[in-house]
User: What shape does this take?
Amino acid sequence: MQNDETEQLLNEIGQLLSEDVAYRRHNTLLHAELDVNYVAPSIFTDLGDHIVNRDADRRLDYALLDLWGAQDSDKRWREIEYLLRGDKFEVNFTYPEEVDPEEDSLDRRDRIVERYFGKKPIDYPPPPDNAMKYKH
Assistant: This one.
């Protein structure tokens, strides 16, 4: 799967993840699910005793979609795990046949984060002020 375009896009993703200088010294995991016209990235940074979930920059969405689209359509992966440690990264791809359709995607994501950073509390950002609220 490695080619010049893929390498360039993987480096771009690393650049985008490292732009937030507050987290540059910490290991950061990007987990994203992709499909046609669909990208759902989640960024987690290990702060030692806890993990923080960070909002993704919209430019990251486009870089991920470009990376996914650069693959042959019959060999496209479904998920990416991109671990950034300093200026080095490692990438793992999960293909559609490797995803259990019965498993909740959030449970799967939490399991992946735990595999990289251990079992720690995760701080999620509060919802935006304009988020829809429902009462039971």
Q: What stands out?
A: Residues 4-123 form a domain with the Murine Class I Major Histocompatibility Complex, H2-DB; Chain A, domain 1 fold (CATH 3.30.500.20).
